[in-house]
């Protein structure tokens, strides 16, 4: 059935349904085993392989380059659908799609010519930017030092989502002068070790743990060109999280509706002889579904702003367009977060105590949503939006975390 038939709304483009149909069988296959994987803590290596084989990871590449020529609203709508299958998988692919945007926006032809064929051949890219411990805000203890005809990489990263599944790791560090420098290194290069030590109570299958780099040789061709990441990167990475939340909401809505329709036990003080006819229960189901619908609609509206930012990448007004896109995403953060956290809580009000059984794994929806929502605190987004509304203050640039 189409997205319209299921009352989730029309897709972002006229061709969306045709594009989405290429991947929906894979999404369904991923969703069928999601509970089993979560309960057994079984990492989705096979599922990532299915998506690579389908070409999903090449979505943003032009058709002439071996991709599907997808625009950003199409990407984010598909990420909602994928997240309804398994939000862990979307999180794993987040760095890859971000790196793809880096390549598409790069002003260095050689960099594009190096990476577009690799991405088209369905090689996957993970990330290595965040550090924990005593690293100060805006700095990196990881070093990339020039050593003759190559560079030497040393250090450790955390929150390396995607890297355990990847062919390459996109990372940042400091050079011998303390200046920022980036590189893309082979995941299986000598001296690279990626650990599955992420222990969050949600998104537990993303392998967002530690990566160690010990005297890793990096060829000059794989040192990232100067200039930083693509301009709308902060908004992009946050919107992936929001699309993931919208997908979690959609999956929770589907599950609570199904379980209510199957339920035979009733309460003596209920309102009908069948739970499926109890108006109070139906109200809860409707509220969960409406929250998921609203979250998805807001994601797609924000994705339109990112598409405008992408199209403005070579225009004189690029900074203004990017600032507006960042503000639109910030305006979406608290609303979507609140909708989905509430929806994944109140769904239990439509069910009995049997809904708390581990075998159903319904609590994963709240756990995953709460974990995603904790990555970038929503309280700051409200302040940024308010400061713009009152004082005309533009949003800050790249967000960083570390010691004061």
Automatic annotation (TrEMBL):
Residues 240-375 form the Acyl-CoA dehydrogenase C-terminal domain. Signal peptide: none annotated. Residues 16-123 form the Acyl-CoA dehydrogenase/oxidase N-terminal domain. The keyword Oxidoreductase applies. GO terms for molecular function: monooxygenase activity. Keywords: Monooxygenase, Oxidoreductase. InterPro entries: Acyl-CoA_dehydrogenase, Acyl-CoA_DH_C, Acyl-CoA_Oxase/DH_mid-dom_sf, AcylCo_DH-like_C, AcylCoA_DH/ox_N, AcylCoA_DH/ox_N_sf, AcylCoA_DH/oxidase_NM_dom_sf. PANTHER family: FLAVIN-DEPENDENT MONOOXYGENASE, OXYGENASE SUBUNIT HSAA, MEDIUM-CHAIN SPECIFIC ACYL-COA DEHYDROGENASE, MITOCHONDRIAL-RELATED. Belongs to the HpaH/HsaA monooxygenase family. This is Monooxygenase. It comes from Rhizobium calliandrae. The lineage of its organism: Bacteria, Pseudomonadati, Pseudomonadota, Alphaproteobacteria, Hyphomicrobiales.
């Amino acid at each position: 059935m189409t997205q319209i038939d299921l009352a989730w709304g029309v897709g972002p483009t006229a061709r969306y349904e045709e594009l989405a149909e290429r991947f929906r069988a894979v999404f369904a296959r991923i969703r069928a085993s999601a509970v089993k994987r979560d309960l057994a803590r079984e990492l989705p290596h096979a599922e990532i392989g299915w998506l690579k084989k389908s070409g999903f990871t090449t979505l943003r590449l032009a058709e002439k380059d071996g991709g599907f020529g997808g625009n950003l609203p199409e990407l984010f709508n598909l990420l909602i659908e994928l997240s309804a299958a398994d939000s862990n998988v979307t999180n794993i692919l987040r760095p890859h799609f971000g790196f793809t945007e880096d390549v598409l926006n790069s002003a260095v032809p050689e960099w594009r010519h190096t990476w577009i064929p690799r991405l088209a051949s369905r090689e996957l890219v993970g990330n290595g930017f965040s550090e924990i411990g005593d690293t100060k805000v805006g700095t990196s203890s990881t070093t990339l030092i020039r050593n003759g005809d190559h560079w030497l990489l040393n250090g450790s990263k955390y929150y390396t989502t995607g890297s355990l599944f990847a062919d390459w790791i996109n990372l940042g560090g400091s050079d011998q002068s303390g200046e920022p420098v980036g590189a893309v290194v082979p995941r299986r290069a000598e001296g690279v070790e990626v650990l599955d030590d992420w222990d969050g109570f949600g998104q537990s299958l993303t392998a967002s743990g530690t990566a160690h780099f010990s005297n890793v040789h990096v060829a000059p061709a794989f040192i990232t060109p100067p200039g930083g990441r693509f301009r709308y990167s902060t908004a992009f990475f946050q919107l992936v999280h929001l699309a993931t939340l919208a997908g979690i909401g959609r999956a929770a809505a589907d599950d609570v509706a199904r379980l209510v329709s199957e339920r035979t036990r009733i309460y003596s003080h209920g309102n009908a002889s069948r739970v499926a006819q109890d108006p109070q229960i139906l109200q809860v189901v409707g509220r969960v579904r409406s929250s998921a619908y609203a979250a998805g609609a807001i994601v797609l509206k924000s994705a339109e702003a990112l598409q405008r930012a992408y199209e403005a990448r070579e225009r004189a007004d690029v900074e203004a367009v990017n600032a507006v896109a960042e503000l639109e995403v910030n305006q979406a953060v608290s609303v979507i977060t609140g909708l989905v956290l509430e929806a994944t809580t109140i769904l239990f009000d439509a069910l009995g105590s049997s809904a708390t059984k581990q075998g159903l794994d319904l609590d994963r929806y709240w756990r995953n949503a709460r974990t995603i929502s904790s990555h970038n605190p929503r309280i700051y987004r409200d302040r940024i939006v308010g400061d713009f509304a009152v004082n005309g203050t533009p949003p800050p640039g790249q967000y960083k975390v570390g010691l004061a």
